[in-house]
Each structure stands twice: as structure tokens, then as C-alpha cells.
Amino acid sequence: MLIGFGLLSLAVAVPFLWRPLPWKRLLAYSSLEHMGVIAIGVGFGGPLALAGVVVHIVGHAVAKALGFYAAVPLLDHDPRASGHQVGGVARTEPALGTTMAVSLGALAGLPPSPLFVSEVLIVAGGVAAHRPWAAAVAAILLALGFLGLSHALLDTLAGKARAGSHRSEARGLRALTILTAVTIVGLLALTAAAFWLPHSELARALAAEVR
Questions:
Q1: SS3 of 70, please?
Q2: Which residue has better confidence, 112 or 91?
Q3: How many CB atoms lie within 10 A of CB 200?
Q4: How far apart are the first and last CA of the chain?
Q5: How far is C-alpha 74 from the geometric centre of its chain's CA atoms?
Q6: What pLDDT shows up at residue 205?
Q7: Cα–Cα distance between 55 and 180 in angstroms, integer?
Q8: CA 89, CA 100: separation in Å to the nearest integer?
Q9: Cis ω on the peptide bond leading into residue 112 (within 30° of 0)?
Q10: Phi/psi of residue 39, each to 5°?
């Protein structure tokens, strides 16, 4: 049941990730995708998949929180961002563009994002659990989601800037820059931990609980 609903969640989210969306709505639809990934991983069970689930939950929480923190300075930068896709932020406000790139890049699963490693672990866990067809469908949907979010990332950073956007000292931008630096360190540390976690006692204990 978890695998079925997880795949359904991915299938519903992917078409929206290919559409031009306002920033917060884009983050919301990516949450629909990532909750599906977590459900699939729990459904697969086993140390590999469950280690991927742990990494995915933590990495998603960190990257998504950073993305939502960026919403306030983004609205200062472009007041119409609440209802329209933003573009060219890397040119008009480089510091804000960096924050949005870190958040969306991590959520898309661009290496070395921990979500890239967690998704590989979950798909590999599906194969190990003798569910190759479910793992294959999940991998295809994840690839489509990756392409959609990557396209959104390129448009957001390097696309055509709207006429109302401007360079300004947006609220909270200095604190957001510090938070971005801390987030990058945390995400890289989580990526490193993801290579150890499948062989840990935690992964084995979780697998025993699921069984």
C-alpha cells in the first residue's frame, strides 16, 4: 500500500514540476514528490531503503526550510513573486539567487545533494527487496521530477527577469546568507553520513521494526 501510494504521489507531482510556478507553490509540489519517495522507501523496507528514508527526511527538511526562509526577501525583491514564477534572480540579486539555488538544487537531487544519495539508496533497496518493477517505475518518475526541478532552477536563476524585480537590500538577506552557508555545510555532512548509514545499527534496527 505504501509503495502504491508513494508511486501515485510521485506521478501526480511530476506534471506540476514541469509547469512555471510561483516559488512557494513550486516548493509545495516538490513536497508532494518527496513524501512519495519516503513512502516508497518505507514500503520497500530493508537497511538500504530505510537508510535512504532517514537521509531523505533530514535532507528534505533542511533544504525545504531554507527555501521557505527565502520567500520573504524574494517578495521584497519582486512583490509579484507570490503569484508568478520568478526569473533571473542570480543576476538581479546574487545573494538571494544563491540561497534559492542551494535549496532547489538540493531538492532536485543534484549531486552532491544528500537527496541524490537517498534516492539511489531507496531505489537500490527496492531491487534488494525483490521489487524491481516498483523500483524501476520510481526511478523513472524521480528522473522526470529531477528534470522538472532542474528546469525550474535554471529559469529561476538565469531566466528572463520580470520588469518589477530590482536589486535592493531585501529584508533578512544578511541572515539568510549566513543560514545558506550553514545549510551547505549541513547538507554536505549529511551526504557523507549517507554512505555510512546503510551499514549502521540504526538502519538494521529500523529494518527489524518494519519487518
A1: coil
A2: 112
A3: 14
A4: 15
A5: 19
A6: 80
A7: 19
A8: 9
A9: yes
A10: -60, -40
Q: How far apart are CA 146 and CA 100, in angstroms?
A: 16
The beta strands (E) that lie in the chain are given as none
Provide the grid cell at 184. 551547505
CA distance 57 to 93: 30
- The residue assigned the cell 532536485 is 108
What is the average pLDDT score of the chain? 91
Burial tier of 59 (Cβ tally within 10 Å: 0-12, 13-18, 19+): buried
Grid cell at residue 116: 541524490
Structural contact between residues 188 and 54, judged by C-beta atoms closer than 8 angstroms: no
d(CA 45, CA 208): 9
CA 186 to chain centre: 14
- Tallying the residues shown for the chain, one arrives at 211
- Which residue, chain included where needed, has cell 524501476? 136
pLDDT by residue (tens digit) across 114-144? 999 999 999 999 999 999 999 999 999 999 9
Which amino acid, residue 92?
Answer: T
Q: Residue 83 CA to chain centroid, in angstroms? A: 21
Cell of 123: 531505489
C-alpha cell at 27: 516548493
Count of C-beta atoms within a 10 Å radius of residue 134 = 20
Given a contact cutoff of 8 angstroms between Cβ atoms, the answer to whether 123 and 131 are in contact is no
Give me 31's grid cell.
513536497
Backbone angles phi, psi at 77, to 5 degrees: -70, -40
- 10: which 3 cell numbers? 510521485
CB 103 within 8 A of CB 63: yes
